[in-house]
Write a structure and sequence with these properties.
Helix content is about 75%, strand content about 0%. By secondary structure, it is mainly α.
């Protein structure tokens, strides 16, 4: 009796047990009477702890629901937006009325380009979402690998850009209105340097492969020394819609280099970085020159005459830009009776030529082909698929926005910066709807050529997220 009590006590307390060479598994398999106590008290406790730690109830108690997280993020975003608007408005109201508009124009100049880039990234995420729901294999069209950025990852980048750029602008307004001029001047400089470093950071973080793909494509656009691929001229076409962004970036960087940020040195129109600078038309014309060189390279490789007509289309943008800039370098009478008429004529030619090319070549809407099909029927599918009003809307809006192109690129018309911003944003919306029909037309060319691409080559987004734990692209 005392021996059995001693055995039971030793099984409960590790200090009373004698060390032995046998493991727990060997003791359980031996079938000895003394080991039944260990089997009944020690091992089931360990299994119970493991089951408790791996139970679904235990896991759901740690992770909040996705709906709660989404609501929490929306609330914090609204609080942030209200705070930025309140601080920015109070900061502007602290300034004198005579300098307020000039200061807002300068602040807008620094942050306007990055705000428009953020808008374009948002729109590109929408395009990828629509493509992922359709029967178009856009990954094959753009020659993307299986780990390319999805629309969710594009939107994550957009959210961060939406938060960082207005926050920096609010800090700029607040510091300047409170007398901290040096700190205010450093805000746009820090933001521009940070964006540049993120793009060229040579380490495998923050979507390294996608950043490399973007930089490589930009390099191929700037130096078209190799055959032109679809991503090359597709991105180059988008850059032509962002010519105003390039112009404002040049003026912003010029003022940063010459230390004119948050000063009145730039108020003179004829200063180094003023509104009459020769660099403005030069930068505006760069995207069109790139696209022109791409067309000439395509003609060299393919000997197709339509590429020459496409090159002619981009060449018609050059006189519009430079004739407009001549207003500040010639006499008023000469501008009114000579150069203004030439500028109007070149603007009409460029707008109508570009509109014609969009309809007949880029979109191939000579007949009303149905917009591409979707994998699953939805409200969006029923609203757009097979509806002729979609094409009438796209054609009409494209014609109107092609004509307003002159306003945003002609330097002598850019007096109201808010109006120019709205026209530039509308041009990006025009390019946004252009993307759908351009990609659809390219997909039709691929399928009609007999090169059938199986859709199974491109995994769905859910499979990619569940099947990969090291998503770097």
């Amino acid at each position: 009796m005392f021996e059995n009590q001693t055995a039971i006590a030793s099984s409960h307390s590790p200090h009373l047990r004698k060390p032995g060479p046998k493991s727990v598994s060997s003791d359980l398999g031996a079938g000895e009477p003394g080991n039944s106590v260990q089997e009944g008290y020690v091992f089931p406790l360990t299994v119970g702890e493991m089951k408790a730690s791996n139970s679904p109830m235990h896991t759901t108690a740690i992770m909040p629901s996705p709906i709660f997280l989404w609501r929490f993020k929306v609330i914090w975003f609204l609080i942030w937006a209200f705070t930025c608007c309140k601080i920015g408005w109070d900061s502007v109201m602290r300034m004198s009325a005579d300098l307020r508009d000039l200061f807002l124009y300068e602040a807008f100049l620094y942050y306007n380009p990055l705000l428009l880039v953020t808008m374009m990234v948002w729109l590109w995420g929408v395009c990828l979402w629509v493509f992922s729901q359709s029967t178009i294999n856009y990954a094959k069209i753009f020659d993307l690998d299986s780990n390319h950025l999805t629309h969710r990852e594009i939107w994550k980048c957009s959210i961060w850009m939406t938060i960082i750029v207005p926050t920096s602008m609010t800090a700029y307004l607040y510091l300047y209105s409170h007398g901290e001029v040096a700190l205010a001047a450093s805000q746009p400089v820090i933001l521009y340097v940070a964006v540049a470093l993120v793009l060229i950071f040579p380490f495998d973080i923050f979507y390294f492969s996608s950043r490399y793909f973007l930089l490589r494509t930009l390099w191929r656009i700037a130096l078209p020394l190799q055959p032109i691929s679809f991503p090359d001229f597709f991105l180059a076409d988008i850059l032509t819609s962002m010519a105003k962004v390039f112009s404002d970036l040049e003026r912003s960087v010029c003022r940063m280099v010459h230390r004119q940020v948050a000063t009145i040195a730039w108020f003179e129109a004829d200063s180094v970085c003023g509104s009459h600078s020769v660099a403005i038309p030069l930068v505006l014309v760069v995207p069109y020159i790139w696209r022109l060189l791409q067309c000439l390279r395509q003609y060299k490789d393919t000997k197709e005459k339509p590429t020459l007509f496409n090159a002619l289309k981009y060449s018609t943008a050059v006189p519009v830009i430079f004739l407009s800039a001549l207003k500040y370098h010639v006499s008023p009478d000469r501008w009114t009776y000579v150069y203004r008429r030439l500028w109007l004529f070149s603007s009409v030619v460029n707008s109508l030529y570009s509109f014609y090319w969009d309809i007949t070549r880029d979109w191939d809407l000579s007949v009303f082909a149905r917009i591409f099909k979707f994998n699953k029927p939805s409200l969006c599918t029923n609203l757009f698929y097979g509806r002729r009003w979609v094409y009438f809307w796209v054609i009409g809006s494209n014609l109107i926005l092609r004509c307003t192109w002159t306003y945003k690129l002609s330097a002598h018309l850019r007096h109201n910066y808010l109006t120019v911003f709205m026209v530039t944003a509308l041009e990006m919306l025009r390019r946004f709807q252009w993307i759908f029909f351009r990609v659809e037309n390219e997909w039709n060319k691929i399928t009609k050529s007999g090169f059938q691409i199986p859709m199974v080559d491109m995994p769905r987004e859910e499979e990619k997220l569940l099947g990969s734990t090291n998503h770097n692209v």
